[in-house]
Amino acid sequence: MFPQLSTQSSVPDHDGDVDPHHSTTVTSDRNSSSNDARSGSRLPTVSLVIPTLNEALNLPLVLAAVPECVTEIIVVDGRSTDATIAVALSWPRVRVEREPRAGKGFALSAGFAAASCDIVVMMDADGSMDPAEIPSFVRALVAGADVAKGSRRMHGGDSSDLTPLRSFGNAALTTTVNLLFGSRYTDLCYGYMAFWRDVVPMIDPGCPGFEVETLINIRAQQAQLEVAEVPSQESNRLNGTSNLSVWRDGCRIGRAILKGRTTRAHRPATNSSASMAV
After folding, report:
1. DSSP state of 199
2. CA torsion sign, 50 to 97 to 220 to 103?
3. What is the pLDDT of residue 14?
4. Model confidence pLDDT, tens digit, residues 120-174
5. pLDDT at residue 249, as a whole number
6. Rounded to whole angstroms, how far apart are CA atoms 181 and 213?
7. How far is CA 75 from CA 24, 83, 92, 159, in A?
8. Paired residues of 74 in beta bridges
9. In this structure, are residues 44 and 37 in contact, taking their beta carbons and an 8 Å threshold?
């Protein structure tokens, strides 16, 4: 078991429709395979999605620390001008997807679509997130969660990268989302997450920028998915400069929260006996 998990919401029996902006085809074979992994009758396979933009210096250090439980690594590159792609292709288990559209959100959506395993983990390429924590996220999912959310604010979590301004903004946005959507997140603006691949159509917002992490959390709550927070230790970026802008991206996240109030995600009805197009 995973004693430090903080279960945010339980999953009631609920029939609904997939958001019309995200359609998918669910087959009985895929449902059966996913259910086998969820039930613990076999070990789940794991896809690690890493969006990159000029991370040639950091990527080798991150990839070297990826644990053996990860089946495939999908590096989604957003038009890097350095050697990021060449570095990625030199590592085993790595597949490179090129995303022509600018923005972390688009890169993650491309990675989710390319993932082929039971579980999808999303992680930054700058070295601030420790790949050694991936088994903790996997254990949270196997224990019953639909989504495992990293938190720097719960017991056992910490950050050496949060400035006072970013910390204040994160706390304010976390409180706002919890009040508006009835969630109990402790660390909204942190993008170290994992989830079962079959919930991707419910939580992937298909948006361009850093607001993607906030919208994933909102959609998970709206779809009544079971979210478990996992303590995570964030470090400083290893090399280079972050593309994050506190004011610009903070405003984008604020607008995304307001948009989330009018765009509702749903947990679809399940049908394991026949193929179902939704």
Report:
1. G
2. positive
3. 34
4. 999 999 999 999 999 999 999 999 999 999 999 999 998 887 778 888 888 999 9
5. 61
6. 15
7. 23, 13, 12, 25
8. 49, 95
9. yes
Q: How many domains does the chain have?
A: 1
Residue 18 within any structural domain of the chain: no
Whether residue 24 is contained in a domain is answered as: no
CA 8 to each of CA 172, 191, 201, 221, 261: distance values in angstroms, whole numbers, following the listed order? 19, 17, 20, 9, 19
Q: Is residue 25 in a domain?
A: no
The encoded tokens of residue 259 equal 């948009």
Place of tokens 């409180």: 175
The single-letter code of the amino acid at 132 is A
- Residue 101's SS3 state is coil
Positive or negative torsion for Cα 190, 37, 1, 223: positive
Domain that holds residue 230: 44-268
**Non-local CB neighbours of 73 within 8 Å, separated by 6+ positions:** 47, 48, 50, 63, 66, 91, 93, 94, 95
Residue indicated by tokens 């997450």 = 193
Contacts of 90 (CB under 8 A, 6+ apart): none
Residue 77 domain-assigned (yes or no): yes
Would you mind telling me the total number of residues written for the chain in this entry? 278
Write the CB contacts of 141 (distance below 8 Å, at least 6 apart in sequence).
38, 44, 119, 147, 148, 194, 195, 196, 228
CATH number for 62: 3.90.550.10
Displacement of CA 117 from its chain's centroid (Å): 14
Cα separation, 135 vs 261, whole angstroms = 33
**One-letter identity of residue 151:** S
Task: Convert the pLDDT of each residue in 219-266 to its tens digit.
Answer: 999 999 999 999 999 998 888 676 665 666 667 777 778 776 655 555
